[in-house]
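Protein Record: Sequence and Backbone Structure Tokens
======================================================

Structure line: whole-number tokens from a learned vocabulary of local backbone shapes, matched to residues.

Purpose: to set a sequence beside its fold so the mapping can be learned.

___
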Amino acid sequence: MKKKYFLTLSLVIISALMLLAGCGSSSSGNESEESADESIDNDSDKPTIAVVLKGSDAEYFKLAEAGAKQAFEDFDVNGKFLAASTQTQEQELINILEDLSTESPEALVLMPSTGSVIPTLSKYSDADIPVLLIDTDLDWEDKVTYIGTDNYTAGQKAGEYLTSILSEGDEVAIIEGVSGAAQNEARVSGAKDKLEEHGLKVVTVQAADFDRTKAVNVMENIITAHPNIKGVFTANDEMALGALQAINASNLEIPVIGIDGTSDALKSISQGDLDAVIQQLPYQMAYIGVENAIRAINDETVEEKIDSGIDLITNENAQEKLDEVNDWLGK
């Protein structure tokens, strides 16, 4: 009896020490607070799903994070969330995926940046871990599905909006994001095709790496080099707001349209500053990603491509959309 008592007491003490050690560990800047202090528990009865994003420095990524965490809760998932610091830090993202592969999650939901991650993703497919891509598609045959915006269509819709408020022969500038990134190339191609189809002249395409500050400088240069610019398409909202800042500083009135639907852009539209954005739905992308990861784990059918939808946001519906985004972010 005494032997059994001391054995039980020892187990209790060991468990308490392990708990204290876990609480005292430091977290990496790339991991969420919920996941930083522990590895995935593969002994859990719950499905183990990791969601990894290419960046964490923009509201767009915060919306995707919120969608993933809500899905973890709604579907009772043993989930882990990780993200690179910025979407230009491709090696950081690769390192995260390399480290995560040793934990063997049952499924991976990934928002990649470029195809540079494909060699690492092969480790997941070799281990029969389903990989679902969100936001950015990759030319990789082993993916389960792509969930996100049809970026070419989004670019076309933006170009169509500009053609509706401009005239044939007007000069238009395009500010792209990270050159080589799949979603960037598709958006720019869609916008350019639609603009040229309606007789507008795309006189320059310049990169600003999806960054607002860089877009200010790029737009200043465009204004200097092309003083007859009548409209601007940017491949995301941050660059749209940066371009608008440069335009306002030059006391010009040039319509600007971006893609994303962040709260800053929606607020700007509702105030009559930014003209329009094509709204994406990163919250839904991540949520649907987790939902379909469960299906993949259970060997259920998952569609090869799932369109998360887009919407044109103008002054007429900007406030309504802003309230929705703020609700997702808990504001």
User: Anything to note?
Assistant: The chain has eleven helices and twelve strands. The chain has a mean pLDDT of 88.
